[in-house]
Write a structure and sequence with these properties.
By secondary structure, the chain is an alpha/beta fold. Helix content is 23%, strand content 25%.
Length: 301
């Protein structure tokens, strides 16, 4: 049973173009990719319930019960295993044209794949925290210039001192203070952004092929009980990070790589602590979680 509160695909399904998914050399829209995935899941016997929102997760003897809100009525669904793949809500840049260019120049992670796209180009990193500073340093090794755009006056209040010093010392990183993005333009890919100084209201246009939004994300974990351990940002812990959880002290085996603080409950994708926040990685983690489910169900045979 697959439960979806809105539509299959989550973050991937809302992307206008996914260009780094294996097997699609010219890219594929998020909607088309997730539609194909849903058809494939149907073929293997999966049942979809949409809209269906999980309100809580409780534990019983030998099974796990998720209490769900389904089209205005409450239903209780019991299962021996559960995979939590509820993802995260990433803080979006409030700028004209941003939605159309997501995945085509607007990114929420800076990995080796994106770094290759930034070779000898000017890129923008939006955010003043450690994740933004780390992304700026990472991208500066390939990009000609990195514009680190922050709303505040400096990095001291939101970034670790060791990292802010490195960022400020990097010659091809320019810190732009009191600034927000107002508009993004481009035909098939991001071409320009319009920046505004929020104090003087002066605007300027910058040619760039990539904007990295590093302004935070909120995992969709509010519905989970305290027994499912999470990190300080709310992402679900798995594997070795939960080996000392009370439920595992009496277990006859260690937790699987993607198993949570409760045996038989798994987490995959952006909701998981330590995930790399990429579509291909989420798919891979889903496959690994299913293998873990098979191993757990085998103990019931």
């Amino acid at each position: 049973m697959v439960l979806e509160s809105f539509a299959p695909g989550g973050q991937a399904g809302s992307s206008s173009l996914i260009e780094n998914f294996f097997g699609f050399p010219t890219g594929i829209s998020g909607g088309e990719l997730t539609n194909r995935a849903q058809l494939q899941a149907f073929r293997f016997g999966a049942k979809f319930s949409t809209p269906a929102q999980a309100l809580s997760l409780a534990f019983g003897e030998g099974d796990h019960a998720a209490v769900l809100q389904i089209v205005g009525s409450t239903a209780k669904l019991r299962a021996k295993c559960v995979i939590i793949a509820t993802g995260a809500d990433y803080n979006r840049i409030d700028a004209d044209g941003r939605e159309r260019l997501e995945g085509r120049g607007v990114y929420y992670a800076a990995t080796a794949a994106e770094r290759q796209l930034c070779r000898s180009a000017t890129v923008i990193v939006a955010g003043g925290g450690n994740s933004a500073g780390q992304a700026a340093m990472f991208l500066s090794e390939y990009a000609e210039k990195v514009l680190l755009m922050i709303r505040g006056a400096d990095l001291s209040k939101s970034m670790s001192s060791y990292l802010s010093l490195r960022v400020e010392a990097k010659k091809n990183i320019e810190i732009i203070c009191h600034t927000e993005i107002r508009k993004m333009t481009g035909e098939k890919h991001l071409e320009t952004v319009e920046l505004e100084n929020i104090e003087t209201h002066e605007r300027r246009t910058v040619q760039t092929s990539a904007v990295f939004s590093m302004t935070g994300a909120k995992p969709r974990t509010d519905w989970l009980p305290p027994e499912i351990e999470r990190d300080d940002k709310g992402f679900v812990k798995t594997g070795a990070a939960v080996a000392d959880a009370p439920a595992w002290k009496s277990a006859k085996r260690p937790p699987g790589l993607l198993e949570t603080s409760r045996p038989g409950i798994f987490a995959a994708g952006d909701v998981r602590s330590g995930s790399v926040k990429r579509c291909t990685a989420a798919v891979g983690e889903g496959g690994m979680a299913v293998e873990g489910v098979h191993q757990v169900l085998g103990t019931y045979a």
